[in-house]
Design brief:
Blueprint: E1 2-6, H1 10-20, E2 27-31, E3 42-46, H2 51-60, E4 67-71
Antiparallel strand pairs: 1-3, 1-4, 2-3
């Protein structure tokens, strides 16, 4: 299971990727799974299932997102 974060725009996805590049919480940009909807077509998949931690970091650093969900991808 992974935390998956969806975005409204591609720029939000890229900003998130750049922010987490040098952090301990690793992940990657992937095409958005069908169950998350269309959005910008990209989402960031974290290699963790700790949704609460990811949500807190995203909000504290004012990183925009449209959805956060734990799922198997």
């Amino acid at each position: 299971m992974n935390v998956v974060v969806g975005f409204d725009t591609t720029s939000e996805a890229i900003i998130t990727e750049e922010f987490f590049k040098d952090k301990d919480l690793k992940g990657e940009l992937i095409p958005i799974p069908d169950e998350l909807g269309a959005g910008c077509g990209l989402c960031y998949k974290f290699f963790t299932d700790n949704e609460e931690q990811i949500r807190k970091i995203m909000e504290e650093n004012e990183l925009s997102f449209s959805i956060i969900k734990v799922m198997e991808v």
